[in-house]
Amino acid sequence: MSANASPPGPPSADDFRWQAFFQHSTDALFLLDRQRRIRFVNRAWEHLAGMPLAQARALACRRPNPASADDSLEDVLAHALCPPPEVLQGQAAHVRRLLPGVGRQWWDVEFLPLRDRKGVRGVLGRITPAIVAEPVAAVPLPEPVAALRDRAVRRYAFDQLPATLPALRRLADQVRLASQVVVPVLLVGEAGTGKNWLARLIHYQGPGRERSFAALDCSRLPVTALFDALLGERGDNQRNQLATLYLKNPASLPRELQARLVDRLANHSGPRVVAGCANPAADVQGGRLLEDFHAVLG
């Protein structure tokens, strides 16, 4: 999605100084102006993105929706480099973005807002190519299964999340960010507030939507079943098919199991874990939830 506005004017002497500094970096760096147009990219960015600075400077990064394999490189980059809403409010952010097409590249993109007295005047970004293991499907999904998954994607969508109040808008922004990164997530709220639904939304709107979602109620399953489900030895294919595991009431897990899960979560081993608690601080204080387990969850 190219900007209609004309590219920024020629760089000043000050511009040459910081641009020369950035050119020495082996990291792919880019700078957005207040209107989220690319003002500068270094040589590492040009090599990674396959686009020269002269062409990139006409690009506005304002596309919140993911691109498809049929879109142009400009459209793909307009989404990959689009700052999340919290960045425009002055907060740094780190997201993982998919570049569709040949190779299905993943980028980890860090956004650092540049502020002055009038607010955010620009955004400095850094791209790190991410290695994401994606299972290769031996055969396409049967049509009924594919239709069921598509219905789930539509049911657990951001437009189904009410955002009429400021607190709900903040929640929507946080959930949107959580869906784009592959890290543990802790959902806190009383029973009946929709933690299970939010966990499914995070899964179905994230990069692992084509794989499985599983939910475990840690307060109801037998200990042996919990150990087998969370730490049992499974074949690589079965393990890769599970993208997201939702743990309800993780404070009910045996402390030994919590301790062993800390290592797995810290090493990003196994499926992405989303947990739901009513009062994790009280669970930690009461000794039901290990402090390390609480820390690695959120």
SSE diagram, text form:
Blueprint: H1 13-23, E1 28-32, E2 38-41, H2 43-49, H3 53-56, H4 73-80, H5 85-88, E3 93-99, E4 105-116, E5 119-130, H6 143-155, H7 166-180, E6 185-188, H8 195-204, E7 212-217, H9 223-231, H10 236-241, E8 242-248, H11 255-266, E9 272-277, H12 280-285, H13 291-297
Parallel strand pairs: 6-9, 7-8, 8-9
Antiparallel strand pairs: 1-2, 1-5, 3-4, 4-5
Structural account:
The chain is 38% helix and 21% strand. It is an alpha/beta fold and 298 residues long. Strands 2-1-5-4-3 form a 5-stranded antiparallel beta sheet. The longest helix has 15 residues, at 166-180. It is globular.
Brief description of this entry?
The chain has helices at about 15-25, 45-50, 55, 75-80, 85-90, 145-155, 165-180, 195-205, 225-230, 235-240, 255-265, 280-285, 290-295; strands at about 30, 40, 95-100, 105-115, 120-130, 185-190, 210-215, 240-250, 270-275. It is of the alpha/beta class and about 300 residues long.
